[in-house]
Design a protein that fits this description.
Length: 352
């Protein structure tokens, strides 16, 4: 049986639509955030039901806003997680009306007969499959198209790709396609790029040169013709290496520091995991920080092995039950409200 994965969706008995986050789910439910609620006048619709999005973009402060909605109207979906020591939204399996799988929905689209947006999805996946050599069955489609609530006038295409190896091949193919410029796949125009940089500087603690570097390194976003698209690597079942309860996480406090990136193998997924060494922290002693873990998508797969980076985040004690406890830096915690980061050491006014 396929395991729950990042960017799957569930529909509750009330008709709420939740998006799964990461791979750490209790046996009795799914860690997920509220994405759509039924509401007359909403921009998204299917089967005569209109939906409204609860957050305009994924960010810890936006997710916190969904907790307010749940606390007031649907408190049965808020839980204190003893493994992560946080309050988080979890959908119990017993309250799931329907489970949505991106790969299954894409196969339905590839069989044909959909609207113009679904036809664009089919053409994009076939092109990516041809360019990368990755079979179409390794792709999926998430977001509003997965749910069938999309609108061809304004909806984006959000694809998934299964597995590290397939993701790397698609990454290389996309970078090459942008460089060659002989396919409908394009990067951001100068105007759109400047807007992206300005927005990220407002939302995150980034200088202009840092935001520009992140934009240059982001490979999984772009335009297919005039349609914005994104691609999100997803772990295969055998690549999910942590069972719920296998480790326990205890917050210790906020820290700033620097580190050397020793492995980016798992940085392609969400949460992104950067293995680190040569860690230096300000005001802390006797820490054994082994990884920086980010739930903020901005920091996914944008740092390089051997690179020196600086960070600000929540230090957590990690207890494995077997070996010695160690520490990690968490990016994307509610405590820091988006003011945390991991980024390359970039000289002011200069390049990487």
């Amino acid at each position: 049986m396929r395991r729950p994965k990042d960017r799957d969706y569930v529909e509750t008995v009330e008709g709420l639509l939740f998006c799964l986050i990461g791979y750490l789910h209790p046996p009795w439910g799914y860690t997920a955030y509220l994405k759509y609620v039924p509401r007359p006048g909403g921009k998204w619709s299917r089967g005569g039901v209109q939906y409204q999005r609860t957050l305009s973009y994924y960010h810890v402060t936006q997710v916190e806003e969904t907790f307010k909605i749940l606390r007031e109207h649907y408190p049965q979906y808020l839980f204190h997680c003893p493994i992560r020591n946080i309050t988080i939204s979890i959908v119990p399996r017993e309250r799931v009306r329907r489970y949505y799988i991106p790969e299954d929905r894409l196969q339905e689209i590839l069989r044909g007969g959909g609207d113009e947006l679904e036809e664009e999805v089919r053409c994009l996946v076939e092109l990516l499959s041809d360019l990368s050599g990755v079979p179409a069955r390794s792709f999926g489609v998430t977001g509003s198209i997965l749910l069938g609530t999309h609108n061809p006038r304004f909806s984006d295409i959000d694809l998934t790709i299964l597995g590290t190896a397939a993701s790397q091949r698609v990454k290389e193919a996309l970078i090459e396609a942008r460089r060659e410029g002989n396919t409908p796949i394009r990067g951001l125009t100068p105007g759109r790029a400047e807007k992206w940089i300005e927005e990220r500087m407002r939302r995150f603690p980034l200088r202009r040169e840092e935001a520009r570097l992140f934009l240059e390194r982001r490979w999984n976003y772009g335009y297919f013709g005039d349609r914005y698209f994104s691609i999100h690597p997803i772990r295969l079942d055998e690549e999910i290496r942590e069972e719920y309860g296998e480790r326990r996480y205890t917050p210790l406090g906020i820290a700033k520091g620097s580190c050397t990136i020793t492995s980016t193998r798992e940085a392609i997924f969400l949460p992104s995991i950067y293995r680190v060494g040569e860690v230096e922290t300000e005001g802390w002693k006797d820490l054994d920080i082994r990884e920086v873990v980010s739930y903020e998508g901005l920091y996914t797969d944008v740092l390089q092995e051997g690179e020196r980076a600086k960070f600000k985040g929540l230090i957590e004690r990690v207890e494995t039950g077997g070996g010695e406890p160690y520490q990690r830096v968490l990016i994307g915690s509610a405590r820091l409200k988006g003011r945390d980061y991991i980024k390359p050491l970039v000289p002011k006014g200069g390049g990487p």
